[in-house]
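seq:
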Amino acid sequence: MPDRAPANLIAALQTVARAQPKASALRLPSGHLTYSQMAEHIREHADALRQQGLPQGALVGVDVSRSVPAILDLLAVMACGCAYLPLDPAHDPQEITGRAKPHFLLRDATLVPFAPDEVPVTRGIAYVMPTSGTAAASKLVEVPHQAVLHNLAGLNQLTEITSEDHCLLLAPLSFSSSVRQLFLPLLHGASVVVADETQRQDPDALLALIATEYITSLDTVPSLLALLSDTQSPDALAATCLSRIMAASEPIPAALARRWTTLLPESRFFAMYGLTETAGIVAAHLVTASALPEDGYLPIGDPLPGTQVALHPQQEEPGDGRGEVLAVSGPGLARGYRYQQGEQDTRFVTREGRRWHLTGDLARVDEAGRIMLTGRADRQVKLAGKLIDLNAIETALRTHPAVLEAVAVPLTAPDQDSHIRVAVQLRPGYLIDDSAHPLRHLDAQLRVLEANQPETTHMYEEIYRHRVYEQHGIVVPSDATVIDAGANIGMFSLSVAQRAARVLAFEPCPPTYQLCAANLQLNAGGTVQLVEAALGSGTRTAEITWYPGATGLSTLHPDPDAEAATLHAIARREIETGSMEDAEAWREQATDIIERKLRGQLFPCRVLRLSDVLDTAGVTDVDLLKIDVQKAEADVLSGIDERHWPRIHQIVAEVHDIDGRLADLVRQLHTRGFHTITEADPMSQGAGLHYLYARRPDYAGDPALPDAAPARGQETVLLDERDLVAWVDRRLPHNHRPASVTGLARMPRTPSGKCDRRAVARLLAASPAAGKGMAGHHDAEDPQFQRVAALWSEILGRPVAPRQHFFLSGGTSLSAARVVSRLRRSGHPQLSVRALFDHPVLDAFCAALTRSQKDTVI
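struct:
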């Protein structure tokens, strides 16, 4: 950068482009742009926007769902003297635009007026960035060019990025860290390599990108660094060209810094601190092995030149020992919040003639005079009148040798006070012995965590015994590429994983995705790449209805009548074949059982086009496309571009024949050269479910290998949840004791790599364990209690205790119906199976039984 500060980010880029026009600026999946080519793209794009009537000072909403064109879009917007507002389909762009009121939206290089007469204008503003949080709760931060330039100049005095560096752009453009990851390298002549979504989420793909692109500088969040070092071999990491690690956006564990400085002793590790409201990094330091603390977290480091940091007293809960609020002052502060004057007055304050931003981070000064983060002011909660520090719970659990990551959230179950519940991601080789999802041995090799025992049995019979996806000439040859759309708990992917060279599996329901990920780890499904998304006709976010009582019916297109018809058809088939133990109990209570099974819960999910996936993943041929997506099968096929159809050789789809859909899909496939066979699903006759088998007649895949049992993953150590709870109890005051600790195979993450706490809360609230603390106050000596306990014990086939949870002890919908049928015949004629679903703990069920008797008498 020149000695004289440039007027804005674009002027600074133009200076670099003039100095080294032929150097590589952006390395994209489709090729690379030199600095001169990038500057020319910016100029041409900006001219086109001006010709469309874009005035200086406008705020322009930019679709950032596809990083490569979006980068050039936002650069062109700034070149016009305007500010950009990143709009990500995953973050409710309608809500953001409604609050930010951009003057225009930029879609496919075309300006669309949104609020053209809106004020204020944004002269001097580079971008308006939503902070993390729900779209409705996020703050819209207006950040000036000069604030960004000031912070980047100060940061590079420490990090010393040069034109020889290859730097990764990992953060999505809807996160403020993307500004640093893009402009810090570009303003110093380095090359920026743009990672795609798969590479951001998959540590294997990320390491491959780092290796093949000779990345020298890695700037990311600590949790992603932990994921890399825990899942990749030390030799593979050491073999990279990484010479600079930059960590920010989360507290940085000292153990993580020690691990990376040990792995890469010749590289430099920088710990950084900053926020969206401070235009990026405001404090940083170079970590040295000799100065690392034994445990805990790293200090925030020294303020950048011209920046001040200080501690301000908390306005609430003084004297709790957790520190004061960290405040930042200097030229790097944002202008403020757009249309949020109340928030701005609270967070941006003037004290003793200086303007400060109160960050909300709590901190203290240690004995060495260093500023140490101690938590967030907004992560303290009061339960039963006592203050609980969620950060302290997470920190305590992370000291357990088996725990990689922990997230604590307050949740309230029906008829209960709030409790603290924790999700943990364990290190490889560990598993929580969780009765909510028992570990089941299906044969000598295959072990799975299951949501519902009957469903697992059904899938195992279909996939492993009857081979429903490999009939009528469909084969899975050696070294095949297989797409598994609708993976559920991973049974099909595991069945082909040992034969296929590559399996891309898609499961959009977060609770089911977690089970699938765990099963792939348990059974060494190393060739399977699991994506938490649905396949559909377009890229978007959607809501999927997850049925915990019938996960296989979870759908983007809920239709309770159709789902109920499917369950009735399956039951009829089981009765006819004699596989149902108590058909009479089913007949008595079928309506209530099905109503309970179809109590759906909504989860947000991503929807991707298969063609986009194939391009991103570099897939040239698909040997088999398996589709089981509950009424969305036509959507999956609509997401395939014509250029990709010749590369798809075999398809097996479970089709819901709605409004002639089956015949329509057959016609489409015939038109594209497939031979097809259809047959009704024998387990759901009368419900309109069919298997569609399609194969190209010229497909000549190698003969399928003999059946291969799934390879057993590494030996698994089972942890008792009670031991993890006790681990916290021994280290913190008793009121910090969590009500439950639930294991997740993969911690949900935001696109930037941070832990997604809202997604964790949704998972914990949906878990059967969320209600396991529910209990009534019932006398264990009461004869009725003893009779019910004996009945449960008989039907469950195991002894029961007063706080036993029926469904976490092996109970199913049908066994619940058997319990209620027996109770009906012994003096409770009005009892419904819903009572057991609503009160699954023995104490609570008996208390409800007593209340119903009293109500009946009255």
